[in-house]
Write a structure and sequence with these properties.
The complex is a heterodimer of chains A (285) and B (279). A two-stranded antiparallel ribbon of chain A has the order 1-2. The longest helix of chain A has 33 residues. Chain A has a single domain, classed as Orthogonal Bundle (MetI-like fold). In chain A, α8 runs antiparallel to α11, α10 runs antiparallel to α13 and α12 packs antiparallel against α13. With 285 residues, chain A is mostly helical. Chain A starts with a helix and ends with a helix. Chain B contains 15 helices and no strands. Chain B has two domains: 57 residues, no CATH class; 209 residues, MetI-like fold (Orthogonal Bundle), CATH 1.10.3720.10. The chains are: A mainly alpha (285), B mainly alpha (279).
């Protein structure tokens, strides 16, 4: 009976294991493997080059810029989203009229298709007819080149990403806030603690595990940023919003330099791995 | 004291109002732009309420640009992909929660879920492209549905494990005692019991696929097989100033998601909170 159960469970697991092996494990290995080859897919030409892809990429200015841009974006977007998400969670941790109507509305941006989100913001960012510039102009401020000013374009990406993913941070932190026992607050009130003290000594420490996790998830996710620069700026102006995944896409699927593409992936994996490790160590997750 | 409370309430509601406007205005702006005539869009003074309502952009998008076709495409991809992952995923989740496998096998699946979430999206995609190309599956909806297993199978298994654990084991033991086989018990007793969980998983999977852009862009380049995200991306990069049409297409393609999301709203709110792993 026991033996049969064992075989049976293997039979149940087989489809998933097969898919994992074929679509996840093997591609990971093969990506690593391909990073040592020059592989021009259009000509079906493949040639072993050792570490030359790595040398080439790391000394390539656009690639260096993409690394820096991605890290800068990651840092700005994650920090901002933590702030906005936290603020939203604090608002919704109180009870107020129509809370149950506002709550589902507040998470709408997160469930919308990224391409649609980009459309909306491109409309609003438009230099001549966009509502943001129209508002600025109507109060006598200069119009901004949201997507075409190299100093501003990255900030605009951060704004769009924050609009879309604040709800995610919000939901995780709201669950955290709601898991803090009410009695703690009541006891502190009885002891005459000020609001600030309560926030500093109860809310913040008890919410810390949630904050740590959600920040880690945002660090990992924003690192993959692709759709926004691809659709809003194409990486421009110049190289101002060129990010690693966008760079990867162009190399691998526009120029079909698959060896270079694989190398970009490996380097990205290493960076995000190091980033997560440092973070986990730092915050003692 | 009372005055302070009132003042505080006013401040609170003022902040709430600002926040909700910041969240909802962009969506409203898309919706209202999709029914505006050109004169109300191309203007220096924002037109908050359209002076004249038109459905011409919807006509353009749905009839002239054949947008329904892309909606159908996206539905087909979702259906195939979800079919595969629910089939494989529910079997796996059942085995992991019921068949007394060594406990650390759970961790293997958890590990892969985390791995997929953490690694850059490009880490799988080149070999996958080569495999699908050698099978002639580039530019096919089936090919994309297979590629999506990378995202949605780990996601589905992760969600289903939770649902399967919540079904009391006694129910099936009764079935087993009566001499039914494991497969029968699985199909006739367990699956119906986890049905709400299957549906929730299905919807989360659907939302993931419907919104996905990167893989769809890579694996679909022929116009007749594109999914809605790729088509909207195309509108945006190629002729990005036909705002009315763009917004109409955007609204149409957000609708299925908004409807489904409202259906599992409570689940999204709770599950995203407790396991940030989702998505």
């Amino acid at each position: 009976m026991r033996r049969r159960e064992k075989y049976l469970s293997l039979f149940f697991l087989l489809p998933s294991l097969l898919i994992y092996a074929l679509l996840i494990i093997y591609p990971l290995y093969e990506t690593f493997h391909l990073s040592f080859y020059k592989f021009r897919y259009i000509e079906r030409k493949i040639e072993f080059v050792g570490l030359r892809n790595y040398e080439k990429l790391l000394s390539y200015e656009l690639f260096q810029k993409a690394i820096i841009n991605t890290l800068v974006f990651d840092f700005m977007a994650t920090s901002l989203q933590l702030l906005t998400g936290f603020a939203l969670a604090l608002i919704f941790s109180r009870s107020f009229k129509f809370r149950s109507i506002f709550l589902p509305l507040a998470i709408l941006p997160m469930v919308m298709p990224a391409a649609v989100v980009c459309s909306i913001w491109k409309l609003m960012f438009d230099y001549r007819f966009g509502i943001l510039n129209n508002i600025l102009a109507s109060v006598g401020l200069p119009r901004l080149e949201w997507l075409t000013d190299p100093r501003l374009a990255m900030i605009s990406m951060v704004i769009v990403d924050t609009w879309q993913y604040t709800p995610f941070v919000f939901l995780v932190l709201l669950a955290g806030l709601q898991s803090i026992p009410r009695e703690l607050y009541e006891a502190a009130m009885v002891d005459g603690a000020s609001r600030f003290d309560i926030f500093k000594n109860i809310t913040l420490p008890l919410l810390m595990p949630h904050i740590k996790i959600v920040v880690l998830l945002r660090i990992i996710d924003t690192f993959k940023i692709f759709t926004k620069p691809a659709l809003l700026t194409g990486g421009g102006p110049g190289d101002a919003t060129e990010t690693l995944t966008l760079f990867f896409y162009k190399e691998a699927f526009r120029f079909f330099e698959l060896g270079i593409g694989a190398t970009v992936s490996v380097i990205m994996t290493i960076i995000v791995g190091i980033l997560s490790l440092i973070y986990i160590k730092r915050v003692r997750l | 004291m009372r005055l302070i409370q009132i003042a505080e309430k006013i401040v609170f509601y003022a902040i709430l109002a600002v926040v909700m406007v910041a969240i909802l205005f962009p969506i409203y702006w898309m919706a209202v732009t999709s029914i505006k005539i050109e004169r109300d869009v191309i203007t220096d003074v924002p037109v908050l309420l359209p002076t004249y309502i038109t459905l011409e952009h919807y006509e353009d998008v749905l009839i002239e640009q054949n947008f329904t076709r892309y909606i159908v495409n996206t539905f087909i991809v979702s259906t195939i992909a979800i079919g595969i992952s629910l089939f494989a995923g529910s079997l796996a989740a059942y085995a992991l929660t019921r068949l007394g496998l060594p406990a650390n096998l759970d961790n293997v699946f958890l590990f892969i879920t985390l791995l997929v979430r953490m690694l850059p999206t490009g880490a799988f995609v080149i070999p996958l492209y080569l495999i699908l190309d050698s099978l002639g599956l580039i530019n096919t909806l089936i090919g994309l549905a297979i590629a999506y297993q990378i995202y949605i199978l780990p996601l589905s298994i992760w969600l289903l494990l939770g649902f399967f654990r919540s079904v009391p084991i006694e129910v099936e033991e009764a079935g087993l005692v009566d001499g039914a086989s494991r497969l029968t018990v699985f199909r006739m007793i367990v699956l119906p019991l986890v049905m709400p969980g299957l549906i929730a998983t299905m919807i989360v999977d659907f939302m993931t696929i419907w919104n996905e852009y990167f893989y769809a862009l890579i694996f679909l380049t022929a116009p007749d097989v594109m999914t809605v995200s790729v088509v909207i991306g195309g509108y945006l990069t190629e002729y990005g100033t036909l705002w009315g049409q763009l917004c109409a297409a955007g609204l149409i393609s957000s609708l299925p998601i908004l409807i489904l999301a409202s259906y599992i709203q409570r689940y999204i709110i709770e599950s995203f909170g407790y396991s940030g792993i989702v998505r």
